[in-house]
Design a protein that fits this description.
6-stranded mixed sheet; single chain; 9-stranded mixed sheet; 423 residues
Length: 423
């Protein structure tokens, strides 16, 4: 069973100048008539896919020898909420960083955000085999005078807490909210002292994914095998095994083999799959793959369509990863560090309070077993080529690889990671 909780939190204290103006645009009512474009959601999440690869590059650069696991979907939503409250140069900065250049109208982005939110709830309801929830929150201090139009547009997201009189109680409340949304998987996110009397706003997204492989691994076939961390270092892992029909491709641009592993309950509107990018078993192949993957931001749209169904012998490691990523230096690498400056402008949230961002972090956890998995790797002992190898293909996961969870419905990357070694 795939079990994937994650949380992103953007903590806000004092900063930023006060500027008056309309909520999302100079005339929200007029602009809203343009916002019902059915393509807007697809354009929004196409931008998220580009953002994903840039984020992977930045996080991997910050932790080049560790396992990487994060949710670009979750972070994207937190920064999207920040974008709705941004003004002037800060708005331009976030528009560029979030790949929102497809429209100059913020109400169109807001409409796309809402379409995506409603679609998510409809697609992954109680009767769905795949469970995916993503909840956004704007935790404002009770003393903050939130603009009335923002309260109307984000009435589902906004919640008032008494940061000034009960800062630690507010911290515990947010921690409990995170724990509830992630079904108890992510606990005690905020440490004592992280919420203070000066806190004005905490923007959060909590996401939880649970899915079962369409082709499950048999537990009796799991056994200890060697995982080659490098040519000098090997570790034993619990290696799972399955022989089945999977979509398989040899991608010459990336110089790797790619395997798609779908989850149960698939139909055209609810398809979710894990893609594994397996480089050759040679030195520096992972680094070369990552460099190619992140430099070609249009590659994801090709990847999901290029595979050929065939018989594949798959071996995947069984593992758990839990990561806390401090995202402020990561966003600085992406050219978005100025959102933390004192001069950053988030007056769209309130025309009476000075609001600015201090810190941002993400905590993610993944559990991989025979029922479902978000991470997989394979050993390519045959030479790389685009021609079809002899059946069945061997996709044995015993050296570092890249993986992602992809939602066909939104064309968005939900989770992304690099598996380098057992933890």
């Amino acid at each position: 069973m795939t079990n994937l909780p994650t949380i992103v939190l953007l903590l806000v204290a004092l900063a930023a100048p006060t500027v008056h103006g309309q909520c999302l645009a100079e005339d929200d009512n007029v602009q809203h008539t343009k916002a019902d474009n059915p393509l807007s959601r697809n354009r929004l999440y196409k931008g998220e896919s580009i953002f994903t690869l840039k984020l992977l590059e930045a996080i991997n650069a910050a932790t080049p020898t560790e396992n990487v696991f994060f949710s670009p979907y979750s972070l994207y939503h937190v920064l999207l909420l920040a974008f709705f409250g941004a003004r002037a140069e800060t708005e331009k900065l976030l528009r560029t960083g979030l790949e929102l250049h497809w429209t100059e109208d913020k109400p169109v982005v807001w409409q796309a955000y809402n379409i995506g939110k409603k679609s998510l709830a409809a697609r992954f309801g109680q009767n769905s085999d795949i469970q995916f929830t993503s909840v956004d929150k704007l935790f404002f201090g009770k003393q903050v005078a939130v603009r009335e139009c923002m309260e109307e547009k984000f009435f589902e997201e906004i919640e008032k807490l008494d940061f000034e009189q009960d800062s630690d109680g507010s911290r515990q409340y947010i921690n409990n909210w995170v724990e509830n949304v992630t079904y108890g998987e992510i606990k005690d996110l905020l440490i004592p002292g992280s919420i203070t009397k000066q806190t004005k706003l905490a923007i959060a997204n909590a996401a939880y994914f649970k899915g079962t492989w369409q082709s499950e691994f048999k537990s009796e076939q799991t056994q200890k095998e060697i995982f080659y961390v490098s040519s000098e270092r090997q570790e034993f892992v619990d290696m799972m095994h399955v022989l089945g029909t999977f979509s398989h491709a040899a991608n010459e641009k990336l110089g790797c083999h790619i395997l798609e592993m779908p989850y149960k309950g698939q139909d055209e509107s609810n398809r979710v799959s894990m893609f594994v990018f397996l480089p050759p078993a040679v030195p520096n192949s992972l680094e070369q793959l990552l460099a190619r993957l992140t430099s070609d931001t249009g590659i994801l749209s090709e990847i999901v369509n290029e595979g050929i169904p065939r018989m594949v012998d798959v071996k995947l490691p069984k593992f758990n990863i839990e990561k806390v990523v401090e995202l402020k230096p990561v966003l600085e690498r992406l050219g978005m560090g100025k959102i933390f400056d004192n001069a950053a402008n988030f007056s769209g949230f309130s025309d009476k309070e000075n609001i600015g961002f201090d810190e941002i972090l993400q905590k993610s956890k993944i559990e991989v077993n025979e029922k479902g998995s978000t991470a997989a790797s394979g050993t390519v002992l045959f030479s790389f080529r685009s021609s079809r190898p002899v059946e069945p293909a061997m996709f044995h996961c015993n050296h570092p690889f890249v993986f992602l969870i992809y939602d066909y419905g939104t064309q968005a990357v939900l989770f992304n990671g690099v598996y380098r070694q057992p933890e």
